[in-house]
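EI: anyone free to look at a 329-residue chain?
SC: sure, send it
EI:
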Amino acid sequence: MGQSIAILGTGSHAPAKILSNHELAKLVDTSDEWITTRTGIRERRIAGHHEPPSELAARAAAAAVADARLTPADIDLLVLATVTGDMPMPSTACLVQRKLGLPDGAMCFDVNAACSGFLYALEVARALLAAGRHRHALVVGAEKFSGFVDWQDRSTCVLFGDGAGAVVLGRTAEAGRGILGCQLGADAADPALLCIPGGGAAHPASAHSLAHRQHFVKMKGREVFKFAVRAMAAAAREILEQHQLAADHIGCVISHQANRRIIETLSADLGIPMDRFVINLDRYGNTSAASIPLALDEARRAGRLRPGEVALLLAFGAGLTYGSALIRW
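SC: here you go
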């Protein structure tokens, strides 16, 4: 029997500083009731100046490696999903390699698929391991979105938080266990629905870009909401059909933690009860690429991912990107 690729360990890390809705209401015209009723978010974590994304990622990754009962020397592949990297170059993955002490020959690179980034990174790492090129892979999602939100824009600044999550992948001989498959895609019909327009080669930093606040996230909320539900529901149905599974075969759903209303709509659309969905956005907000692995780690440690059960992972993000994955524990 051939070996499959499975998650051997999980880890997560969030900054200590908590910014509640009540505190946020002192900075921008909003209220706890306004935020909670529209998003389900009550607080989020905010990283300090001494906590770049590479530091958040390194701490989550170290926890995942320890959980897998491995050492950094055992990791020869690191795929890091982020849109808020420490700097344009080098990759944040290379900075994490240095902080963790991964082997010099390890393959390390970043993936940018926004909030779908972790699923994209997961599939890339799985494929490289399955090809026999590597032994163990670290897949990390890490974001410091607090540095990219406009604290004068209540429609976006209330949504995002900072954090990181990580998993270690490796081969397993346990029959039926592991990553069953991933379904990924993108619809770039209107990239401006969710973007950070400034800072790249198209609109490099300038007095004009700063004055027009182009270095902050911009989002058309209603359109993104509609896309999120439609794309994730379709991705879920497609991967379930591919693996001949029904909705009631799913023991746990870990979707991108952006908005509770999106998750509730997904629950009704897919016919999967809300009690099977992992929800921690009330405490972390939207942590973009860190969202799924952070929730995954919390769910596993809380005993919600039971051996033999299948978990469904769902995401959407800027691009617009989307994806799903099935994992049997």
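EI: The chain has a mean pLDDT of 96.
SC: 👍
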